[in-house]
Amino acid sequence: MVATTAAVVLLTSCTQKAVQSTATPTPPAATVASRPTPPAGAYDNLKLPPADGKGGYRTINSDISDVEAMWHLRSALNVAALSCDRSGKLGIAAGYNKLLGSQRASLASAYRAEGKRFGAAAKADAHITQVY
C-alpha cells in the first residue's frame, strides 16, 4: 500500500496542473451611427445647404440686409399671389395688390437698391429665383 501511495504521489507530481481559464468577455456589438434624417417631407437624397454652425443652414436668406429681405418677401408673396389663389376666391391676389399699392415707395426703393447691387436685371432675376 505504501508503494501504491508513493506511485500515486509520483504520478500526481508529474501531471500538469490544470490551468484556470478566465472567460474573455464578448466585445459589444459594433454600433452603426444612424444616418441623419432630412427635414420633414424631404427626399432622402435631398442635398442640404452647408450648416451655419448655429443649428441651421446657410441659405439665400442668411445674413442679408433689410432691403434684400424686403425684396425676398415681395418675391415670395408674388409667387403666392400668382400660384396659390388661381380662382381669386381666397383674396390673396387682391391682398397682394393692396400691399403693393400701400408700400409702393419702399418697394421701389428696395428694387432700385437690388438693381444697383447686381448691376444687371438678369443677375438680379437669377438671384431672386433662388428664393422660390
Strand content: under 5%
Taking pLDDT < 50 over at least 5 consecutive residues as the criterion, the unreliable ranges are none
Order of helices and strands: HHHHH
- Overall pLDDT, averaged? 81
Helix content: 40-55%
Radius of gyration using CA atoms only: 38 Å
Number of helices: 5
**Strand count, sense and closure of the main sheet?**
none
- Cα-to-Cα separation, first versus last residue: 105 Å
Which class do the helix and strand fractions yield?
mainly alpha
Number of strands: 0
Shape: elongated
Q: Which labels suit this protein?
A:
132 residues, mainly alpha, 5 helices, 50% helix, 0% strand
Q: Can you describe what's shown?
A:
The chain has 5 helices and no strands. With 132 residues, it is mainly α. Helix 2 runs antiparallel to helix 3. The protein has a domain at 66-129. The mean pLDDT is 81.
